Amino acid sequence: MVIVFSFTLFITFCLLPFIFILYNPHLLISSFFHFFTSGIIGLFWYYQFYPLSYAS
Known about the structure:
Blueprint: H1 2-23, H2 28-49, H3 52-55
């Protein structure tokens, strides 16, 4: 359950910048940085909660 939740957060934070790019092409650079930082945060939460999936 935890792994699904963290994976959903990862997908959500990674897809948000693409939505910004579609509606605001002039924010491409800021959206890229948002994608980069959110991807790192998403991977951090993903690998932090990943071992918990074995315990449950």
